[in-house]
Amino acid sequence: MAAVPQGYAPGSDAARPWTFYALATLFGLFLLFLYGPMIVIYVLSFQGPNGGVTFPMVGTSLVWFENVFRPDLTANIPAALARSLALATVVSVLTVAISVAAALGFRRRFPGAGILFYLAIASLVMPGLLVGFGIGLGFQVLGIPGGLFTSALGAQLTWTLPFGLFTMFAVVNRFNRSYEEAANDLGASGWQRLIHVTLPILLPGILGVAMGAFTLSYDEYARTALAIGSKNTLPLEIYALLSSETSPMLFALGTLTTGLSFVIIGVTILGIRHIQRRRVAATPLPDIAS
Amino acid sequence: MVPSYDVELVAVTKRYGATLAVDRISLRVPRASYCCLLGPSGCGKTSVLRMIAGHEAVTEGDILIGNKNVTDLPSVKRGTAMMFQSYALFPHLTCLDNVAFSLKMRGVAKAERRARALELLALVRMEAFADRLPSQLSGGQQQRVALARALMTKPRVLLLDEPLSALDPFLRVRMREELKKLQHELGISFIHVTHSQDEAMALADVMVVMEDGHIRQAGAPRDVFERPQSAFVARFIGGHNVLPGEHGLIAVRTDRCRLKEAANGQPHLSGCIAAVEYQGPVVRVVLKTDQGEGVTVLVPDNAFYARPMQAGDPATLVWSADDAHDLMDV
To answer: What is the DSSP letter of A60?
Structure first.
């Protein structure tokens, strides 16, 4: 009988080899490196009113969280947050509309399809700072003042559209055209087919693109910084604060932003899961009495 | 004027770019008949079905449904309904909403369309599953809902694209009976694409054997089985041996062949046994002739076990000249 190779089989009773512990330690250190600073920030954001930006903690309080919401001379967080959210919403809606339309259109090979595709992808490859710089400069040359929903919107779309397009292409690729043929067969017009069949079936993918575009826009710094003009979105405001004021208020801001991101992601994932659970077959029921 | 045929294809051709998928096919499907398109993969049968449905454009030729030329009409205006191989039930709608879909597209009020959908679900015995989603149903159940959905449009012709391929063999036979019964009850024509000859012979009033974009033979299953016109049809339909005859090839049914000593003047072929397969009521014996050809004999089980044979034994294939059928072409 051939010799059974001595290896570590998961689930067996054999003792783990030393390499497991070595790699586990390495991974643990990596996690510490990754999350350690963030955890320090979350803890320090509850710093007491007389404390500084490092340990030790001088009591605990929520005073720095209050500071975040009070606009003062150096920073206006609530206003910047409102701008960020508004811009992210508009970017998200536009990205979804353009990506879905493009993905449905690209199903058929049309002349110039390849070039169009590469043009859209190209902006992913270009450095964000240069793109933002170019847009800002372009608006200046044209004499149009840069603004939130003009130059900043355009700059952010160059960032979110390639991701949206890629995702929607993949989703639409997996879409079975029999559904649309069935809809035709049953008498649906083109518009009815789109609204009652195609879009509902694509909905999880669409929600994913919407959320992706929202978070990409919300966190975007490089392109927006140079194309936005005078009013700041939140990342820009935070960056400005970093250089001017160092207090635990920054940490409180960090904790709040993280919390907000998790809430948005969590809500979207729950929404998608809810839709998927209703549709994905768990196990097909056996044909007993059918 | 009462149309004499439900579907008529006139020299229909389909080209995909440079590939010729369907080559000048003409066919007439009588009223309220069950027509099976049978053939190997790639013979064009699905293309023909999709052209009748209107999901594929016709390159040349015309299609008439009930004496009306529908070649340029969209699928909804043709009076056809299609049942897809994958059923294509909308995953985001319940069974009831799936069946009611065509009425919703026409703007029928909610209460009325749901009531009519429930009636059709009752026809296919799926009314208890009205509020389930398609993903919560088994394959056979999904098929019945797809059937109900297609029938809601009151078609003159129902088109079925390999409807039984995805089912297990036992269920396949049961669904086969249901389809035949339904076709009789509804009094419409069914056009059913399949690659299984058993299915086609069991169901069809008109069996159409296709190869390479052409119709090789069309007729009642009994006619095609008893009198195949070509070696291809004889081989594809199963149950025949294609043997060399005096003036060309002949076909002899495998159950009319015998393995025994040749009588004087009786046509025969000698060889040795290559395989013995027990099939229940018959035993399938494969004989390799001295010329190297493989021929099959279906021996009734008591006849076989009275004189059992095994692989390697020499044997002679005999048949009666009455059972030989001349084949017209290659």
So the answer is: B
Could you confirm whether domain B5-223 is CATH 1.10.3720.10?
no
Nearest residue to B54 via CA among A174, A187, A107, A190: A187
CATH fold for the domain made of B231-326: OB fold (Dihydrolipoamide Acetyltransferase, E2P) (2.40.50)
pLDDT value, residue A119:
85
Give the closest-approach CA distance of A275 to chain B in angstroms. 9
Contact present, B239 and B253 (Cβ < 8 Å): yes
Rounded Cα gap, residues B236 and A150, in angstroms: 68
User: Scanning every residue of chain A, which has its alpha carbon at the shortest distance from the alpha carbon of B101?
Assistant: A186
Give this prediction's pTM: 0.80
pLDDT of B1 above 80: no
Point out the residue among B53, B105, B136 whose CB comes nearest to the CB of A192. Answer: B105
Q: What is the pLDDT of residues A103-132, one digit of tens each?
A: 998 888 888 888 888 888 888 888 888 888
Residues in chain A: 290
**Spacing of C-alpha A57 from chain mean position:** 33
Query: How confident is the model over B170-197, as pLDDT tens digits?
Result: 999 999 999 999 999 999 999 999 999 9
Q: Which residue shows structure tokens 């025949």?
A: B240
Interface of B with A in 129-148 (CB under 8 A): 133, 135-141, 144
